[in-house]
Amino acid sequence: MPRQSNRLLVPGCAQAINQMKTEIAGEFGVQLGANTTSRANGSVGGEITKRLVFMSESGI
């Protein structure tokens, strides 16, 4: 069974993902960090996934 890794498939995309994460957290009124609930942090991650899927499907 192959091991999973968290390496990025597209070099340089980390900055774009972090910017998206910050924007979404601001929209949701969530302050990201260890002191925030996993539900609040997870809502930001879920929204990132939704937007990335939408962007992929629409060919942006």
TrEMBL record:
Keywords noted in UniProt: DNA-binding
Instruction: Provide the GO biological process annotations.
Output: DNA topological change
- What InterPro entries does this protein's entry cite? SASP_alpha/beta-type, SASP_alpha/beta-type_CS, SASP_DNA-binding, SASP_sf_alpha/beta
Question: Record's PROSITE patterns?
Answer: SASP_1, SASP_2
- MF GO annotations: double-stranded DNA binding
Role description: SASP are bound to spore DNA. They are double-stranded DNA-binding proteins that cause DNA to change to an a-like conformation. They protect the DNA backbone from chemical and enzymatic cleavage and are thus involved in dormant spore's high resistance to UV light.
Family affiliation: Belongs to the alpha/beta-type SASP family.
Q: What is this protein called?
A: Small, acid-soluble spore protein A
